[in-house]
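Revision sheet: structure tokens.
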Amino acid sequence: MRKEFKQHQWLILVAAVVVLVAAGSMVMGTAGAIEPILVGAILFAMGVGAALLALFHRFTVVVDRKEVAWFFGIGWPRWRMPLADIASVAPVRNQWWWGWGIRITPHGWLFNASGLDAVEITDLKGRKRRLGTDDPKGLAAAIEASRKLAPGRR
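Predicted:
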């Protein structure tokens, strides 16, 4: 059994595409009138923006028979937690001011791309991680179902 839960960052995706197209148009339209070093700096900034967009435009949580894995964009970096190390799972709602991305909160690490819904996973040492999802009940149920089937269940 393998289930994937994806969370997309549509606002950032649309904004980034608009900015990249506008910057590209500016460079193309004024290529002869701008210093070459400035053109290079703009193209470099566009490349960095495109790389960040590829890395963080989507957040995915994968639940299988052995572990819960989560990652942004193209799959790097990737985090994993063996099902045998999970003490509890619960759907939660994050505070809006905690934002999006990877950050520390009063409830442990938060990983999300959009929205406020998440699943809080507590490991056997009491450390908590919150994984953003558009379907918190479905993700929590998938983790619990996999935990029941996992070898080495505690």
